């Protein structure tokens, strides 16, 4: 029975201590405290939810200021340092809030520029108190000691370097999204780009160009009178170039690299007809000085047919390769 009473009193004591801890965090010891700023922030956001127009933005603006002030105050009362530096963890949290407040938006709260400026802003928040001496009621500016200046410069410079590398990551990511054909290239000679995934064997945009172009060319040649087809082939450079530009604008409109693809034909005579090579040529940056191109070959031959009047005529028959060939180097000269 005594054990039961001890357990019951132990539970009540634990609950009481838990309540006291929560009360200490939630109830401000005085009006001027970090909890007051947090509550003002929550109150401002609730009001901004019901407001409209520029009043909504003004209230939300002050809500952010209260949140930043309260968080900064709370995390600097008993600061926990980032390992290996004198930067408080609170400065990192406050820096994130400041970066979101300055560079975020209602649509995207966290944007690339928010992440880029985060380390630098955190370092500046850490450095600012080093230039102030005194207490809350009597503070004045001062110049840090020489040894303090050195560590401030190292911290801020290191954080700015980290921001530069983060920006470089977002820049490369944007390039690879806008110019996906670069993924088919090699980065073995690069001193700062390391490939972490299996390289793309063939640039897919080059393949798309040829796959969309082929049925259009086939439609203009198949079962047409042989004399018309020969005239078409004589003017193939202009015809295929025009069709290629239309295909590129239609299928690669969302990519910036659409300006770096060019379509050209190559026509060669054979014993029984012609070979028409459709080339999608990459004119963008490449580790190969001569670039590369993709080729789809089509064989065009004359065959006998009967027209609607029952007369024998010669028409063209065209058959294209199923696969595209990826060829490093410059395309062959036009005949």
What do these coordinates show?
This protein is an alpha+beta fold. Helix content is 52%, strand content 16%. The chain is built from 9 helices and 7 strands. The strands form 2 sheets. Strands 3, 4, 5, 6 and 7 form a 5-stranded antiparallel beta sheet that branches. It has a two-stranded antiparallel ribbon with strand order 1-2. Helix 2 packs antiparallel against helix 3 and helix 4 crosses helix 5.
Précis, in short:
The protein is about 50% helix and about 15% strand. It contains 9 helices and 7 strands. The strands form 2 sheets. Strands 3, 4, 5, 6 and 7 form a 5-stranded antiparallel β-sheet that branches. A two-stranded antiparallel sheet has the order 1-2.
Topology of this protein?
Blueprint: H1 2-26, H2 34-50, H3 53-77, H4 89-103, H5 112-127, E1 132-134, E2 139-141, H6 146-178, H7 204-221, H8 226-234, H9 236-251, E3 261-269, E4 274-282, E5 292-306, E6 312-320, E7 325-328
Antiparallel strand pairs: 1-2, 3-4, 4-5, 5-6, 5-7
Helix pairs in contact: 2-3, 3-4, 4-5, 5-6, 7-9
